Amino acid sequence: MSANTPWTIFQKIGFRFFFIYTLLFTSPFPLNIFDFLSNIINKIDEFIWLNLVPYIGENILNVFIDSSGSYRFTGSGDTTYNYVQIFCYFLIAVLGTLIWSLIDRNRKNYVKLLRILVVFLAYFLIFSMFSYGFYKIIPLQFPVPSLGRLVQSYGDSSPMGIAWTFMGASKAYTMFSGFAEVLAGLLLIFRRTRTLGGLVCFGVMMNIFAMNMCYDIPVKLFSFHLLLFALFVFMQDWKRIFAVFFTKAATIPRSFPQYFKKRSFNIIATILKVYIVSWFFYVCISQAMSANESYGPNAPKPYMHGIYDITHIEKNKDTIPLLITDDTLWKRFIIQRESYIYAYQMNGDRVNFKLEFDTIQKSMYMKKRSDSTDTYDFTYTLKDSILTLKGTHLNDTILIKAKQFDLKKFKLINRGFHWINETPYNR
């Protein structure tokens, strides 16, 4: 688009709104990815929105949001807070567009500012694609199905739980999804491949957005905006692409002029670009590797990790019949995470306990997370996959015997991959 081509009033107003809204949504990027700036930038960002969002929610939308500053990240990006925040972006963008239109109403176009916005959004997408991509290449976002998931029935799974199990069950497919995201990010780095990068990113994000919508995964708002930004980057070249596929008009190779007239400025810009992209790689890969060591596939498994099916219970030296109708009894317990144990009752309900091991004294202390007075104090022995627990619960003596389940018996684990299938193995 020529710098001398006049824009219509609707193009100028639309660009002003989109520019302001985009900066609001992406803030405080990219300042928050640099360690020496992230703390203070994030605190300023939180201070602004933790005061503004509850005020707008209560006074305009009649929605109560805790204004004490106790809002915390829950893993969901689709909270009431997030939706009200999007509404705040919209209001500020409308007001900003009105003021901008009054002050700058005689400007012919925003071609230069558009180029800057495209570059900015490309870098925002690059970082987002790298972040999510490397967390799939190293299977962190979708880990292998947990022990609790393996014993859970399909009917008791949430749609999101099914999606996480589906992705985590195949490391190869998860890595393929990650490579697709990283590829989109790589293509967005260079101007000559940026249009293709926008198209690849749009395709990747379309699949992710559809998955979020169809499986009720609470990243709908963020994935929709990434989808929108990818389309925006791709559509900068829509006329040429339309001409190639749908008309007989000749198209000439696109030129890529330098951003600045002075050669020194362009050298500085190139150095800055290399630094920023390298930093993106470093941050995303180092975070993924660190997470891999702390809770990913390379993280050490907790002591006595496994599923234990209860075969015998004694209370005050009386044998308790293991009746499936007795909801007070446990049928199994799982040690999946460090310092936690999950006991499953006969009706399938899960009870969470904090767990402390003393491997020298061979003792384990369990405290119910929802009731700190509900405790178990056991000594244990584990021999030939048989776990024996002896101890006390409140004023009662307890003896429990449980057999460690062989995880290789799960079809989700032992089925593997087959080039040849004479019949579908759909179980």
Helix and strand topology:
Layout: H1 9-26, H2 35-59, H3 80-103, H4 111-137, H5 147-150, H6 159-168, H7 171-189, H8 194-214, H9 220-234, H10 238-246, H11 263-294, E1 306-315, E2 318-319, E3 330-335, E4 340-345, E5 350-358, E6 363-368, E7 375-383, E8 386-393, E9 396-404, H12 411-414
Antiparallel strand pairs: 1-2, 1-3, 1-9, 3-4, 4-5, 5-6, 6-7, 7-8, 8-9
What does it look like?
Helices cover 49% and strands 15% of the residues. The chain contains 12 helices and 9 strands. Strand 7 and strand 8 form a beta hairpin. The longest helix has 32 residues. The termini are far apart. The model has no long low-confidence stretch (mean pLDDT 91).
Strand-residue proportion: 15-25%
Q: What is the arithmetic mean of pLDDT?
A: 91
Gyration radius from CA atoms, angstroms: 28 Å
Q: List SSEs in N-to-C order.
A: HHHHHHHHHHHEEEEEEEEEH
Q: Order the strands across the largest sheet as they lie in space.
A: 1-3-4-5-6-7-8-9
Broad shape: elongated
Annotation field: number of helices: 12
Which percent range fits the helix content? Answer: 40-55%
Uncertain stretches of 5 or more adjacent residues: none
List its salient traits:
427 residues; 12 helices; eight-stranded antiparallel beta barrel; alpha+beta
What is the gist of this entry?
By secondary structure, this protein is α+β, with helices and mostly antiparallel strands. Helix content is 49%, strand content 15%.
